[in-house]
Design brief:
The chain is of the alpha+beta class and about 170 residues long. The chain has one domain. An 8-stranded antiparallel beta sheet has the order 2-3-1-8-7-6-5-4. Strand 7 and strand 8 form a beta hairpin.
């Protein structure tokens, strides 16, 4: 059960940060993801949190700060990334997910996710909107199978632009 919880947390942390951004500002962004699963982190033994961190590193990711049911991470958005209509780079090639049926109308977007890798398989849906070039909100629903267990995860995501320079933060690739 704990491995299922750990894999579910990884899924939320790395899939949930979703937003569209025709008018997004490039630079450093802080993304906050809130979910019921993240609220369970204080109950995970430290050795299993270490396993979670090690698993994230295998994917080339750093586990974000998790506190009070929220994960906060900083993301560098390059000029090139900021020009994309729909941010598929958050999903594809990062966690074994592909984006399908991505659409955008005005400042709102929606997309379907299909994820198949050695740790989990599942499908999800993400939607959101930009309230300004420096702020966004969104949510993600995801149903997966992790270690033979069915897991439903949902998350609310928000982001805010911090500044133009991405000091000590690598852009997503």
């Amino acid at each position: 059960m704990r491995i299922t919880l750990i894999a579910s947390l990884l899924t939320l942390i790395f899939i949930a940060p979703s937003f569209a951004h025709e008018h997004i500002r490039p630079g450093l962004w802080e993304v906050t993801t809130r979910s019921e699963l993240l609220a369970l982190v204080p109950h995970i033994p430290s050795e299993q949190m270490q396993q979670l961190s090690t698993l994230a590193r295998r994917y080339g990711l750093k586990l974000p700060e998790i506190e009070n049911g929220s994960a906060k991470s900083k993301i560098c958005i390059t000029e090139e990334m900021a020009k994309q209509e729909i941010p598929t780079y958050f999903y594809e090639d990062r966690s074994g997910c592909t984006v399908q049926n991505a659409t955008r109308t005005g400042n709102r977007y929606q997309l379907d996710l299909a994820c198949f890798n050695q740790h989990f398989q599942g499908n999800g849906f993400a939607q959101g909107s930009f309230t300004s070039p420096e702020n966004f909100t969104g949510n993600t629903e995801f149903d997966s199978t992790i270690g033979g267990n069915l897991v439903h995860a949902s998350a609310e995501t928000s982001g805010r632009w911090i500044g133009e320079r991405c000091i000590a933060i690598n852009p997503l690739q």
